[in-house]
Write a structure and sequence with these properties.
The structure holds two protein chains of two kinds. By secondary structure, chain A is α+β, with helices and mostly antiparallel strands. Helices cover about 25% and strands about 35% of the residues of chain A. The relative contact order of chain A is 0.12. By secondary structure, chain B is mainly alpha-helical. Classes of the chains: A alpha+beta, B mainly alpha. The complex binds adenosine-5'-diphosphate and magnesium ion.
């Protein structure tokens, strides 16, 4: 097991800089997810950590040793690729044992270690098959097995589940999590799916356009998003982001939305000066107002109702804007009905514009 | 007013019309594909199947084409017996196999690494340029190529001998060529033991580029991810080539080898031009089966014997290709991508 540290890491392809001055420390045994929209540089970063790509500047350290010049083999990493990259001409067994064979281990030891990994991943029946004779989920497991056999210092995953169907993805997600709880190997996991990142990782790194936006535990990111991007990215359905104006009167702070609605916000969570701001309201924090006495209400007309079973996802038209609301009370509503929703002051996020 | 019976009759009539319609349609459906392939079929029957069968027929006859079709005489297996006991035939078989092996193996052993380097080390236009350059010998007329090499190999004026002489005069490496002045003039194409190697070099020079193109296409199909996976698995550059790239192009190797086997066993133009078409060169050292068959048919005007030799050549090629398929086919043809 190893810790991984990135210091002022930058990467350019020609004139295009795709990673800008990244700093990140992954502790030994930690599971860190890199998440961000497609094209933000996650794979590039992972490949630099793996030693498949060279950084333009900055340092990569593993166990406090400078490894910029080391090959993937010398870094003792294992990587699971999005395409799985199984060798088509080798059987499952040969695929999993290939690394050990290159390392010059004896046939007996290879067989034994491949067998152990196959047991963990339930691959026993498939050992003699070629990758072309496997389903997507089985290939994924072989790719995992190939990484596991090696007993590496660090696991690197590049969107390993994105080629699977939704059900299998959830299942494999659980398996990966269980596997990590068992082997406790330092893992860096790239994904564009925030739910995958949140459910799997000890800490999540949010990236956009080659810059780290925020690093934190899933709960921290959900509760205290550092900026509008993180706020919109984390959470499902995603946060409503509305234009507003911040006003301070004595000890109370208020935001005024474009339709004139005034909402109280908690003053100590809002270090901003008065002026134009962006107001963030999570759909699950908006409740249907029951009586006339509720405070902090917004008024609009029901525009769309999407029942999901446990919740009804509503779209409410409000001064030309659409507001998403996740209603757990499942009160029957009619389209075009005018309703009020309310939100607690401490659950309102305010971001600089 | 129609009675119930009438209606019944009507219904039967309609049914009859329907079935005959359906029959006609079914027949049309059967017939249409044949109609569409008939142009090809006509050409195939006329220019492939007929000559093929005629060759078989001819091989059992003695026939001088100048004397006309009427002069054809049935001789049974005589032609075969004559050729299978002819020293020239066996010489030709030996030469053909010798040339097939000595030109076949280097073509691939050279082409595979060059193609790999082209694909891994060069990008886009530069790679296309180099590939095209190496392809030029293949698209140049064999006769022209052979004529040029004929002059290069020439004993007294050929540039090859001149170079060897010049090299023997160079200080350090000259020692390696010290034997050259005594051996001059080296008669590349008129010494029986030099003819085959000289021919072989031309063949290798001409066809390696073709294989490079095939193998480049092969290596281009190997996804970059596999090389990355190999690097992560700890492979160095050689191991990436040996364990990943090479097995991945197996179908291409199989295909290229098949073409080489079939092509090399039919070698004709290079030996023919390099030996000036003169009975296979000194001591028939450059006589290949195709060359021999040409001599029988067009120099000696024994079409029946020529037909017999061409069928024997066909059997040799079929046997060689079958062996190739038997031993390499399973791995070469497996579709595991
Ligand atoms: N080899 C390369 N050459 C040039 N540009 C590249 C190369 N690899 C990636 N990029 C660019 O770098 C950016 C980040 O790519 P990538 O790391 O694959 O993103 P992600 O994995 O987050 O989707 C993209 O804009 C991509 O076009
Ligand atoms: Mg990617």
């Amino acid at each position: 097991m190893a810790s991984v540290e990135l210091k002022n890491l930058s990467k350019s392809f020609g004139d295009v800089e795709v990673l800008h001055q990244l700093n990140l420390t992954v502790a030994e045994g930690e599971f860190v997810a890199l998440v961000g929209p497609s094209g933000c540089g996650k794979s590039t970063l992972l490949r630099i950590i793996a030693g498949l790509e060279e950084a333009s500047s900055g340092d990569v350290l593993m166990d406090d040793k400078w490894v910029n010049d080391l090959t993937p083999r010398e870094r003792n990493i294992a990587m699971v690729f999005q395409s799985y990259a199984l060798y088509p001409h080798m059987t499952v067994e040969e695929n999993m044992g290939f690394n050990l064979r290159i390392s010059g281990l004896s046939k007996l030891e290879i067989k034994q270690r491949v067998g152990e990994a196959a047991d963990i991943l339930d691959l026993g029946e498939l050992m003699k098959r070629k990758p072309s004779q496997l389903s997507g989920g089985q290939r994924q497991r072989v790719a995992m097995g190939r990484a596991l056999v090696r007993n590496p210092d660090t696991f690197l995953f590049d969107e390993p589940l994105s080629n699977l169907d939704a059900k299998l993805r959830v299942q494999m997600r659980e398996e990966i999590k269980r596997l990590h709880q068992k082997v406790r190997t330092t893992s860096i996991y790239v994904t564009h799916d925030q739910i995958e990142a949140m459910t799997l990782a000890d800490r999540v790194v949010i990236m956009k356009d080659g810059r780290i936006q925020q690093i934190g535990t899933p709960t921290e990111l959900y509760q205290n998003p550092a900026n509008v991007f993180v706020a919109g990215f984390i959470g499902s359905p995603s946060m409503n982001l509305l234009d507003g104006k911040l006003e301070t009167k004595g000890k109370t702070k208020k935001v005024i939305l474009s339709d004139g609605t005034k909402l109280n916000v908690r003053s100590n969570s809002c270090p901003l000066n008065d002026g134009d701001v962006i107001v963030g309201l999570r759909p699950e924090h908006l409740h249907l107002a029951k009586g006339k006495t509720e405070k902090n209400t917004l008024t609009g007309t029901v525009n769309l109702i999407e029942p999901t079973g446990a919740q009804n996802h509503l779209k409410i038209s409000m001064a030309g804007k659409s507001l998403a609301v996740a209603d757990s009370t499942l009160v029957p509503l009619a389209l075009d009905e005018t309703i009020k929703v309310c939100i607690a002051p401490e659950q309102i996020h305010v971001f600089a514009k | 007013m129609s009675t119930a019976l009438d209606q019944l009759n009507n219904a039967e009539d309609v049914a009859i019309v329907r079935t005959s319609n359906r029959k006609w349609r079914a027949r049309k459906k059967q017939f249409m594909p044949w109609l569409f392939i008939s142009p090809y079929l006509a050409l195939f029957l006329l220019f492939t199947l007929f000559p093929l069968l005629f060759t078989v027929y001819l091989s059992f006859h003695a026939w001088n084409p100048v004397a006309g079709l009427a002069n054809m005489e049935f001789v049974g297996f005589n032609n075969y017996a004559q050729e299978l006991t002819s020293p020239w035939f066996w010489k030709a078989v030996y030469n053909t196999v010798w040339l097939a092996v000595t030109t076949g193996i280097p073509q691939h052993v050279i082409a595979i690494p060059i193609a790999y380097l082209l694909v891994t080390a060069f990008k886009g236009t530069l790679r296309h340029f180099y590939t095209a350059t190496m392809f030029v010998p293949f698209i140049t007329s064999t006769v022209a190529v052979s004529l040029i090499f004929y002059s290069i190999y020439s004993g007294n004026t050929g540039i090859l001998n001149q170079w060897l002489l010049a090299l023997s005069g160079v200080p350090v490496i000259g020692a390696l060529f010290a034997w050259v002045p005594d051996a001059m003039p080296i008669r590349w194409l008129s010494k029986s033991d030099l003819i085959k190697p000289s021919i072989a070099f031309v063949v290798i020079w001409k066809y390696t580029g073709f294989n490079i193109v095939i193998y480049s296409a092969g290596f281009l199909t190997v996804s970059k991810d596999l090389y990355d996976a190999a690097k992560v698995d700890g492979c160095n550059a050689w191991q990436q080539f040996w364990h990943v790239a090479l097995p991945m192009i197996r179908p291409f190797i199989f295909f290229a080898l098949t073409l080489t086997i079939i092509g090399n066993l039919q070698l004709f133009e290079e030996p023919f031009v390099l030996t000036s078409g003169d009975s296979g060169g000194v001591a028939q050292s450059g006589l290949t089966i195709s060359y021999y068959l040409y001599l029988i048919g067009w120099e000696w005007l024994e079409m029946g014997a020529a037909a017999a030799v061409s069928l024997l050549l066909f059997i040799i090629i079929a046997a060689a290709t079958s062996l190739h398929f038997y031993f390499n086919g399973k791995k070469g043809l497996e579709g595991n991508r």
